[in-house]
Every structure is written in structure tokens, then in C-alpha cells.
Amino acid sequence: FYYSSCVIQLPVITSSTIVRCRSCRTYINPFVSFIDQRRWKCNLCYRVNDVPEEFMYNPLTRSYGEPHKRPEVQNSTVEFIASSDYMLRPPQPAVYLFVLDVSHNAVEAGYLTIVCQSLLENLDKLPGDSRTRIGFITFDSTVQFYNLQEGLSQPQMLIVSDIDDIFLPTPDSLLVNLHESKELIKDLLNALPNMFTNTRETHSALGPALQAAFKLMSPTGGRISVFQTQLPSLGAGLLHSREDPNQRSSTKVVQHLGPATDFYKKLALDCSGQQTAVDLFLLSSQYSDLASLACMSKYSAGCIYYYPSFHRSHNPAQAEKLQKDLKRYLTRKIGFEAVMRIRCTKGLSIHTFHGNFFVRSTDLLSLANVNPDAGFAVQMSIEESLTDTSLVCFQTALLYTSSKGERRIRVHTLCLPVVSSLADVYAGADVQAVVCLLANMAVDRSVSSSLSDARDALVNAVVDSLAAYMSTASNLQQSMLIAPNSLKLFPLYILALLKQKAFRTGTSTRLDDRVYAMCQMKSQPLVHLMKMIHPNLYRIDKLIDESTIHVNDRVVPQPPLQKLSAEKLTREGAFLMDCGSIFYIWIGKNCSNNFIKDVLGYPNYASVPQKMTQLPEVDALSSERTRSFISWLRDSRPLSPVLQVIKDENPAKTDFFQHLIEDRTEAAFSYYEFLLNIQQQICK
């Protein structure tokens, strides 16, 4: 099943007694049963526990003797303020360290301006309290530190050129209190973008810079944000190019999906042990071996952002994306020094976790940082017969330190019925959860075995599940392909996965692009992952005629979803494709000039520019409706997607058309052909 940490109304409970099962440590929840006022039975291990005296009183209703009406037993998601029993040490402060590539490549790409500007704008919005600390490290062939000790007249740069034996020049003044040293921090951020303008340094000592960052963060823990623009070329963790551009569209073996060195994984595990997560922003114009670099985030519970062909002026869409991502990244909620445990009913067991974390013991995930945009998937198996039970439960507990220094426990409990007939099992299938879990399993299989093995396993999942369903419905003609209602879209979604950058073959795909898609599969929440796999396509040139809903003070049109096929794209129309992190607007050659004028702000098709990433505010109903629809789509997700307007001769057109997964390509089936293929395999 899938877990994502977004909650609408959260009951927060401050109580000196957190009631848990004495045997399996499950938190009391809505699915326990009260035998009488004084005893409750655990829904996971069935042990009978005593109700503590304090739990007899209900603070909400101010009544006594109704333990079943307490908020912990009324809500399946709750948050407890934890007592000192839940702390190994006093809660840590929020600590943020920025590690910035300043080689010639980085300076030329121009990302520093955006990062420093974004930090300046959001310094006061960084989650934290009066203890928040911040620091900066820059690196090229050497590593540069910045003394920001309160009382200095300006920031002081300290250079360490012995990268084989990295040390901290002044350990106490490199991570400083954000409030006490705020003016010096602002001075540094204003100066940084121009400090390396004329640099001739082409090398990148990323490994040594990370070793220094680890030493600096170890006493407290916190978050390291790494900005890298090329292959690391010096010192520990240096990498060589492993990509053969001639193999990009190979239909055979795709190599190098795993790391070239264990340096980054080891570093991540060291960081995780010291409650430090590493987030990677890769802004590269050429191959940078993301398969190796990603390990620094994967195993430390960090996150990965990737901006291929990044350039501040030549690639405005990517520059705007970085800006928007940073705004969210710097201001979103964050939890520190966290652990997560998932418990389930006796007879079930959990055997595989997917996401970015380190598994500390069989069922304890170590999350140095936790954020609301991360998703986790879990595989479980049925170990014992469940014939005697009508329900099973799962409980996730996340113990973390808030940015304000409070120790908290977020608990989700889920209860599902046990059914005896296969038809009921199929009726309850959640096709999106099935597809996303299979995507995670396919990523693991691609790395441990091969991409073609993973692709075969995806197809077999469809064949096996539909064959099993058809064998239960004996009255069906075997010549037809039949799926239960719940799985009607299963073959379509699997075909979409097979055509996704992570798993496709025969279509030119850069290795870093493929690896990044795999990283996202393993760490994105289900709703975002589904848009990546199967985007939503809408026709938007007739929004005035569509039915609408009212959201706050906005009128939002609701156009119907279109099939992802080129036959739906009429030359007279305009279409919006929502891929999760990017919106494409495709304009047909004969699209009406009124739409182009009112919505795009240009007199006709020919005058619409190639690189258009924003819609103007035009005082016309169709403009207002289009913008209202797009902002409504945008509001539903953490990372704000960038917009790209596409005409027939635009190079980005290839990307757009590759998402039309129902159509046939040189390398892959159409949806119709795929269904025939599935049917042939079932009837074999």
C-alpha cells in the first residue's frame, strides 16, 4: 500500500499517557474493541489491555467514563506530543547547510543567482525557531568555507586545498545562528553569485566537500542541500563517464543503472547515523552519473531534484522550475531525526519497503529528515490463514522532531475487510496502488537483474491477474479479454509504464533521464506518480462552454478527459497535457485566432514564439477560464509545474507526443495491439 503524509484536519493530542498495547506496542486507535470501560483489546495482536485511569476522562467532552469517545479512538489519523520517554537526546534545532558547486561549469549555467535570490527571499520563512542554524560550503578543485561569526564586519572565506585529508578550518563559526548572524548571511548571499565570475576552475571535488559537510553536521544533524552541475572529477568519490550515447535507443541491454562506487551510499549511511539527510539538486548539461550520485539521498532519506540542460538564460523553463521548486523546498514543513514503523495484524508480515530511507532493523525506517512531499510503498505477505478473522489492520507511526523542537508522533491506522471470494478481492482492487507498487518493484528488478526482466514482469502481472479472473468466470467466451471493473485500466497503465522514460526501450533516452525517472518512481506519492505514468489530456479551446465548479471565489471549468492518442488532437483545437511536473499546451495549426489572441496574447498562430512559458493576463473570459483551470490543477500539488506552449515545429513536441501512449511507435505497441498481445498470452 502507499503512504503519503498529507493530512487535512489533524487532531493533536497532549496527554501524559500515550496508550499503547503492552504486547505489540500498537497505539490505541478506532479499530480496537472495548470489552468494558476498563479493558480494551488490541486489533493487531488481540491482547487485552487495561484502560489507564487518565484515559477515562475525555478532555473534549469533559466527561468521565467514556474512553471510546476520546479523540485517539475517534480518529484514524492523530498526532501525539511526545514525552521525554520518546527522546534519545534533547530535540535538535533546525540546521541547514548549503553545499554549492562553483566550478566554471556551474558559474556558466548561472544557477547561483537563482539559489541565492531564493534564499534571500525565504530566509525568514525557513522552518525553525530561535535556535535555527545555517552554513555554506562552496567547492571546485578546493573546498571553501565561510566564517559567519556574529561580530565580523564581513563574511570570511577559508580555503582548504588538501582535499585528500579534509578538515574544518574553524569548526565553531561555520554553522551559525540564523538570527544572530542574519546580516552577514545576507551579505554572503548577495556576494556569492559574482565571487567566481572569472573562474578557470573546471574540476569538481564533490566527495571531499561532502566529507566536510558530514563533519560539520555530525554534532547536531539536520539537512545538507547539495547543488552539483557535472561529474565529480577530483578526490574521494570521483566518477568517470559511463554512458555510450550510441546505446541510448538500444532495445537490448541497458547498463549502468546501478552506482559505479559505494562512496555515496557509505557517506549517506554515515549521515543517516548522525541524523543528517542529503538532498541533491543536479543541474547538468551533460552526463553526470546520477545512478551513483543519487545514493547520497536515497539512503539518507533525502530528495532528488534534476534539471537536465539547465541554463539560466538559454533554458528559461528549467530556470523557472528551479525557482518554484526552491520556494516550496525552503518553506515546506520538515521533520528531523525521525523513525517510522509499520505494524500489521498477526498473520501478515511486511517484507519490502520502497522510498528514500535506511532500514535500521527489520521494520524500523530511519528518516533523518521527513517532508510532506515524500511517498513510501510497502509490500506485505499473508503468512498465516486469515479464515478466522473478518478484518486486518495496518498502523504507521512516525516519531519526529518538528522544526520548532517538539517531539511528535504521527499515527495513521487503516482497517480493511477480509473476504472469502476471489470476485470480492478483485472488486476491492485499487488499480492505481497496484500500478505504483509494480513500478517500484520494476525499478528494483531493473537494477538487480535487467531492464528486459522488469518489462517482462510488468506484462506478466497483467496476464496473470486477468487470466485468474477469467478462469473464475467460467461462463465467459475464452476468445474475449475480460477484466473486472476495478482493473479495466490496468493494461492501459502498464502499457504507459512500459513507455515511461524509466522502462522504455528503442526510444532514445539519456541514462541520467532514465535513472531520474526511476528515482521518482521510488519516492513520489501516488497522485504525482500516476500523472507521470499516465498524464491527463484536456481540450481547452472551448472552456467557456464546459460545465464549471466554484472553488473559493473562482469559477473553474471541468473539461472531460481525452484519450492519450494523436487522433484526439484536432488541428482546430488547443490541448493541455498535465504530466505532474510540467504542463504542455499544444496549439493546432488551425486553432482559432480568437483563442490565440485572448489566451496567448498573440494575433495568430505564426506569431506565437517557440519558448513560451507563461500565459498573459488578458481581460477576456476565455483567458480567465484557462488561467483559472490551470491554477486549480496547480494548487493540488507540492511542486508547481512549469508550462510549455508547443507548436508543430517546436523541439519539445517530441516529449509531448511520447506521452500519447495509446498510439503505436516504431519501438512499442499501440494500446489495441497491447491488448491483443495480452489476450494471446492468456489463451496460450
TrEMBL record:
Sec23/Sec24 trunk domain residues: 91-330
Query: Which GO BP terms apply?
Result: COPII-coated vesicle cargo loading; intracellular protein transport
Query: What name does UniProt use for this protein?
Result: SEC24 homolog B, COPII coat complex component
Its membrane topology = Peripheral membrane protein
Pfam families per UniProt: Gelsolin, Sec23_BS, Sec23_helical, Sec23_trunk, zf-Sec23_Sec24
Q: Which organism is it from?
A: Accipiter nisus (Eurasian sparrowhawk)
Q: What is any one of the record's Gene Ontology cellular component terms?
A: COPII vesicle coat
The record, for InterPro entries, names: ADF-H/Gelsolin-like_dom_sf (IPR029006), Beta-sandwich_Sec23_24 (IPR012990), Gelsolin-like_dom (IPR007123), Gelsolin-like_dom_sf (IPR036180), Sec23/24_helical_dom (IPR006900), Sec23/24_helical_dom_sf (IPR036175), Sec23/24_trunk_dom (IPR006896), SEC23_SEC24_subfamily (IPR050550)
